[in-house]
Amino acid sequence: MTEENTTISYKKFVGGKGIQNPVWKGGKYISTEGYVFMKCEGHPRANKGGYVFEHILVMEKHLGRYITKSENVHHKNHVRTDNLIENLEVLTRGQHTRHHNLTTKIYKRSC
After folding, report:
1. All domains of the chain, ordered by start, with CATH?
2. Hey, what's the torsion of the CAs at 92, 96, 31, 106, to 10 degrees?
3. C-alpha 1 chain-centroid distance
4. Main-chain phi, psi angles of 58, to 5 degrees
5. If DSSP codes are grouped into helix, strand and coil, which group holds residue 24?
6. How far apart are CA 106 and CA 20, in angstroms?
7. How confident is the model over 9-64, as pLDDT tens digits?
8. Average pLDDT over residues 80-98
9. Confidence category of residue 111, pLDDT binned at 50, 70, 90
10. CA 66 to chain centre
11. Half-sphere exposure of 72 (CA within 13 A, CB side)
12. Which residues are within 8 A (CB) of 23 and not within 5 positions of it... i.e. 6 or more apart?
């Protein structure tokens, strides 16, 4: 008894970009660090793929301006996917660092 050699050919998908692509997910994804990214090509803080942290976009829309390089958008409840404006605040880099250093020290003391 002989086995037939079967070959499977895979077509390389050639599709459009963004909404034209059949696997488009709305331009939004969650990173391995737990942050939500949104497609926003041309934004000053966009990464190579054209994505920006959603919490930055939410705060910029609220303020009506870009977040400066000396500012951080902080999640008050520390939930990285909770990007409601009520949960966000703008801190300077120094304030943000102090806040996280303080909360880390408190956490370590209570354990």
Report:
1. 25-110 (3.90.75)
2. -170
3. 57
4. -65, -45
5. coil
6. 49
7. 444 555 667 777 777 777 899 999 999 999 999 999 999 999 999 999 999 999 99
8. 91
9. very low
10. 17
11. 13
12. 15
pLDDT of residue 77: 92
Tell the burial category of 99 from Cβ atoms under 10 Å away from its Cβ (0-12, 13-18, 19+): middle
* Overall pTM > 0.85: no
Residue whose entry in the numeric block shows the structure tokens 């902080």:
74
What tokens does 105 get? 């020290």
Can you tell me the distance from the alpha carbon of 109 to that of 7, in angstroms, rounded to the nearest whole number?
62
Tell me the two tokens of residue 4.
């037939």
- Output the CA torsion 60→62→63→64 (10° steps): 80
pLDDT band at residue 86 under the 50/70/90 scheme: very high
Q: Are strands 51-53 and 28-30 parallel, antiparallel or unpaired?
A: unpaired
Does the pLDDT value for residue 106 go beyond 80? no
